[in-house]
Design brief:
heterotrimer; B: 2 domains; C: mainly alpha; 19 helices; 74% helix; 4% strand; globular
Chain lengths: 126, 492, 497
């Protein structure tokens, strides 16, 4: 059982929520496609921080068994969330890479990154 | 412990890699490798399904030999076996259907198409098979990235649609991931079976409630459940026909699977029906989607766009099956995953065939095609009748179980919506049928010169159309053997 | 009728036309071969149905159980008394219509004849499936197939008028289809079974409200095809179809499928007892009686011959519906007999209308002055059938009307007896006026032409003669009277009549 106590580190969670809100806001309301992507990265980063924060255990060591510290799991930081986030970062980067490639092609074709303008151009016949 | 579950995923991922590797030098090999890879996955999934059916028990694979809850587990039970067979069957038909010229805007389109389709299939199979909440997120991301790439093959407009989908898809994935985080930090495990044992003690916790909400909303976006469907019409109508077929037939269904899986095996169904109003929300959203999608489909003149809106409506049927949460309705919803996979992929491939032979995609210009492409149009008619729900085609039977389920739930509004949707879909499909068969081409040169597509295009279409009727006639077998054990999870 | 035996004949009777569809499409380049497939299929189908007749009369039902179509429900065919009445009359008339069709479509050089004959065969397969369905689920499947397969025939001419008619037909037919799905589901949910059992499966344990709701659903579902007012308006519109289609489908197969479905729903699913208790039959009887009178009045005002016949059909279909809703053995017997008798007479009238159209392209009653002197055989047959529909003895229409009226008197429902009698007079009015014009009115313009081709005339003479023969020897030609009375008795044996 891993402790999960909001009161322990409200400060960090507050920052996570703030980041997430900023990210979502940018993704959903910004007209510039590039800014949407910036929002996307912010949003993903907020989730990463959330997981890392959940793994934090004060006054504990890196998760390598040391005879001086003992065998109790409570003495070590939980390694699993770090692992998950490493994977999630890879996923996030690949998504971002695809998105960036799209942005380049879209800019070449439509000469703008403004969402509304592109919508207008898409409606025109070829 | 059995190796079958990973044997379904591995050939696809491997073939996806090989298709690019060989395709660079010998383009012809890409298709060949894809067919082999998908075929192997299909064989493995059929063997898996028959094993599950004969023993009645799930097959487990522990990745790297680590048993759960430490290792990652892959589970092939009735539900996932059902899904992988659909996924690989439609996948095989899609890779057999040639990426013909005129359908893609990217030159040398074959290689990226095949690699991405295989990646998509691998991701979908993984999503369905994995018994671990986090690994599921990874597979979700794999198939999503593959989807973004595939949609973008349809040209510039498709790329914009794909980017929009990417942004919404990332939010959806993020929500799911966050929900998984909440569950993990509460119960300390990511394994589904393990979490199912530990979760009931925390059902009152607001964290778990928030997790359910996040996961359902996230998957609702991926499923394009109304009103979270906004990305779908553009993405499906601008994507190349084969891709649209895959997306509508199996890609969106994976999210439905995730909801069912989490509702039935990670949580207890009562938690979704009684403690939280999740199923009620899903029913309302689905009913709204059915009406909205059908009405919007009537308003379209672009064939693929009409089909895309029809998908929004049809997803509502799957949603109803989940939301009504009684065995009959769930059977109907799951059966509709299968039936809709056949119908919609058949229709999109027909759209591809028409586009390939005539370059047309506006329904008003289809006049007279019935005489020029009789076989293709016959297949279209079968699929359209099935969408409307005329027996003995498959579409009738999913409606039959759903109607029974909604009567069982005493939900007459839903009954009315289901019946109404039949009539609405009749409006837009018969409008096309009328155009195709009873109007003359009026000198439209594209139609005048049209003829039946080659066997490579026609065969997959005909197979799907035939499958629609066979599925209709054999539905009792599928329901009693495969789906009833799944529905039994609803009332333990 | 309790005994059943396993046999493939019912299945074959359904499959023969479907096999013919394949052959028709394959031989689309060779019209003579193509048409011979139609005729052979019709003959084969009738032979198969006739071969089952003796054992059915013995009280033994041939049965084909195919496979489970939904858990607990089998796709099954069973030939009982009611089924073989409908099956035999439809398949026999298909033979004549096939011959007639060939004369007709070649006479007016119809286009897309392959599609025409193909769709026709599908319709007949579906009709036979409806007739022989052992349970409601099977019936629904064939009923929907019939709905869809009729569409290409309605829009066959591809004129804007035909397309509009087709749309209207679809709106009605598909709406009926969805209510039928609901009725089916509700039946299954309430009783756990969809088998056809004489006397019904719902009596006793189902609330009156449910019965009324189910009845309403069945009424809409089957009422559309049987053209009960106010669900009738597709039928006159659908008369834009070629005349053989109007003759066989819109006077015999399709509309009678609606009647047949209603008979199954009332007699074999809901049951007379439950009908009686819930008061549902009053609604039906009222609607049917109103339809009989109103349709006859409208028919009087139609100048288009086929439209007049269409409204006449609307009225006569409601004879049968009224007969069923009176819930007496006599009235049921009369109604079921009228199902067959009306078919024979009305198809004659349509055949005549078609023969006139092919020969001289006349469609309006007002143009027919003096035509009887040019086409005496055709108009003679027309006169015979008209007399029969008005209910003159010894023609077959008289007998069914006799039973219907005696049924109303038996239950003391004088109003309905009145409806039958008024309608008889109106029938005489709107049909006889045509005969009188044809033979006695001076022609407006000089006419000089002969009968239409024998392919058209022979079938209509056969049906006209048949309607006299059946009338004279209704007891000696035992099948229909006996069958109808057996069906009525078996339904009534559970009480309620």
């Amino acid at each position: 059982m891993v402790e999960f106590d909001l009161s322990m580190s409200q400060y960090a969670y507050f920052m996570v929520v703030l980041l997430m809100a900023i990210g979502l806001y940018a993704m959903l309301t910004k007209r510039n496609l590039f800014k949407k992507l910036v929002g996307m990265v912010t949003f993903q980063t907020a989730i990463y921080i959330f997981f890392i924060q959940g793994a934090v255990r004060l006054k504990s060591s890196v998760p390598i068994i040391d005879e001086e510290i003992g065998m109790s799991a409570a003495q070590y930081v939980n390694p699993l969330p770090h692992l998950l986030i490493l994977t999630a970062i890879v996923v996030g980067i690949s998504t971002l890479g695809v998105a960036a490639a799209f942005l380049i092609v879209i800019h070449r074709r439509f000469k703008t990154l403004d969402d509304q303008a592109i919508m207008g151009l898409m409606k025109e016949p070829d | 412990m059995s190796n079958l579950p990973v044997l379904i995923i591995m050939p696809l991922l491997l073939a996806s890699f090989l298709a690019v590797l060989f395709g660079i030098w010998w383009p012809g090999w890409a298709r060949f490798i894809s067919i082999i890879g998908t075929g192997m996955a299909l064989v493995a999934s059929i063997v898996g399904l028959s094993k599950v059916l004969s023993t009645g028990e799930a097959l487990h694979h522990y990745m790297g030999g680590w048993p759960p809850p430490i290792g990652v587990e892959y589970v092939l039970d009735h539900l996932s076996a059902f899904m992988v067979v659909i996924i690989n069957l439609i996948g095989l038909i899609a890779v057999v259907y040639p990426p013909a010229p005129g359908l893609y805007e990217v030159p040398r389109k074959g290689i990226p198409t095949y690699a991405l389709i295989l990646l998509l299939l691998g991701g979908l199979n993984g999503t369905v098979l994995v018994g671990d909440l986090f690994t599921l997120y990874v597979f979700l991301a794999i198939y999503s990235v593959a989807t973004y790439g595939l949609v973008s093959l349809g040209g510039d407009r498709a790329m914009v649609a794909s980017l929009r989908y990417l942004i919404l898809g990332t939010i959806a994935g993020g929500f799911y991931f966050l929900g998984v985080g909440f569950i993990y930090f509460t119960v300390g495990t990511l394994n589904m079976a393990d979490a199912a044992n530990l979760l009931p003690a925390f059902y009152d916790s607001p964290t778990i409630m928030a997790a359910v909400a996040l996961i359902v909303v996230g998957m609702g976006v991926k499923l394009a459940l109304f009103p979270l469907h906004v990305w779908l019409p553009d993405a499906h109508s601008y994507a190349p026909p084969v891709v649209a077929a895959l997306l509508a037939a199996i890609q969106v269904k994976a999210a439905a699977y995730v909801i069912v899986r989490i509702m039935l095996t990670v949580f207890q169904p009562e938690y979704f029906t009684d403690t939280l109003p999740v199923t009620t929300v899903i029913v309302v959203a689905s009913a709204g989607g059915i009406v909205f999608g059908s009405v919007m489909a009537i308003a379209q003149s672009d064939f693929k766009r009409m089909l895309a809106y029809s998908t929004v409506a049809q997803i509502g049927f799957v949603g109803l099956g989940i939301g009504l949460a009684n065995p009959l309705a769930l059977v109907g919803g799951l059966l509709h995953i299968l039936n809709h996979a056949f119908m919609k992929s058949c229709l999109f491939l027909v759209a591809g065939g028409i586009k390939h032979q005539t370059g047309l995609q506006q329904i008003p210009r289809f006049a007279g095609l019935g005489r020029k492409m009789p076989l293709t149009m016959a297949c279209f008619t079968v699929a359209a009748l099935s969408m409307i729900g005329i027996p003995p085609t498959a579409g009738f039977f999913s409606k039959w179980y759903l109607v029974l389920g909604s009567i069982d739930a005493q939900n007459w509004a839903v009954v009315a919506v289901i019946l109404l949707s039949s009539l609405l879909s009749a409006v837009y499909f018969f409008r096309a049928i009328e155009k195709i068969y009873t109007k003359s081409s009026e000198g439209e040169p594209a139609v005048e010169q049209a003829n039946e597509p080659s066997a490579r295009i026609l065969m997959p279409i005909a197979l799907l159309a035939g499958g629609i009727i066979i599925l209709g006639l054999t539905n009792a077998f599928i329901v009693t053997q495969v789906l009833n054990p799944v529905a039994a999870l609803l009332s333990p | 009728m309790t005994e059943t035996y396993s046999s493939l004949t019912p299945l074959l009777a359904v499959m023969v036309p479907l096999a013919a569809v394949v052959l028709i499409i394959v031989s689309r380049q060779r019209p003579n071969l193509r048409e011979s497939w139609t005729i052979m299929a019709a003959l084969a189908q009738f032979a198969l149905v006739a071969s089952m007749m003796p054992s059915v009369l013995d009280g033994r039902s041939p049965e084909t159980t195919l496979f489970t179509i939904s858990p607990g429900i089998a796709l099954a065919l069973r030939v009982d008394w009611l089924g073989i009445m409908f099956g035999a009359s439809a398949s026999f008339l298909w033979i004549l219509t096939s011959v007639y069709s060939i004369g007709y479509v070649r006479g007016v050089s119809e286009h897309k004849q392959t599609r025409y004959f193909g769709s026709f065969a599908v319709c007949l397969a579906a009709t036979m499936g409806i007739a022989f369905s052992a349970n409601l689920f099977t019936l629904v499947i064939f009923y929907e197939i019939l709905s869809v397969a009729t569409y290409p025939l309605v829009v066959h001419k591809e004129t804007p008028e035909a397309v509009a008619g087709g749309r209207k037909y679809l709106v009605y037919a598909l709406s009926a289809g969805v209510t039928l799905l609901l009725a089916l589901a509700l039946t299954y949910y309430e009783s756990g079974s969809v088998e056809f059992v004489p006397g019904g499966i719902l009596a006793g344990d189902v609330s009156n409200n449910t019965i009324l709701m189910l009845f309403g659903l069945f009424l809409v579902s089957f009422g559309v095809k049987s053209a009960v007012m106010p669900l009738h308006s597709w039928l006159p519109t659908a008369m834009v179809a070629p005349t053989p289609v109007s003759a066989l489908l819109h006077a015999v197969a399709v509309v009678k499928a609606g009647i047949f479905g209603l008979a199954r729903a009332i007699g074999f699913i809901i049951g007379p007892l439950a009908m009686h208790q819930s008061g549902a039959m009053d609604i039906l009887a009222g609607l049917a009686a109103a339809t009989i009178v109103i349709a006859s009045l409208i028919a009087l005002r139609q100048d288009n011959l086929k439209a007049r016949l269409a409204y006449s059909t609307v009225g006569h279909l409601s004879y049968i519906v009224l007969g069923m809703s009176i819930l007496s053995v006599d009235a049921w017997t009369g109604g079921l007999m009228h199902m067959v008798n009306h078919a024979v007479m009305k198809i004659t009238l349509f055949f005549c209308a078609g023969a006139i159209y092919v020969k001289v392209h006349l469609q309006n009653v007002s143009d027919l002055n003096g035509i009887g002197r040019q086409m005496p055989l055709t108009m003679g047959a027309f006169a015979v059938a008209s007399l029969g529909l008005a209910g003159f003895p010894p023609i077959v229409g008289f007998i069914s009307k006799w039973f219907l009226v005696s049924g109303t008197l038996e239950t003391g429902q004088w109003v309905f007896a009145g409806a039958f009698l008024i309608s008889g007079l109106l029938n005489a009015g709107y049909l006889f006026s045509i005969v009188v014009r044809a033979f006695f009115a001076p022609s407006d313009k000089p006419m000089k032409f002969a009968e239409a081709s024998p392919l058209l005339v022979v079938p209509l003479i056969i049906t006209a003669v048949l309607s006299v023969v059946l009338g004279l020897f209704q007891h000696q030609v035992p099948y229909f009277y006996q069958l109808a009375s057996w069906v009525a008795t078996s339904i009534g044996s559970g009480g309620g009549m």
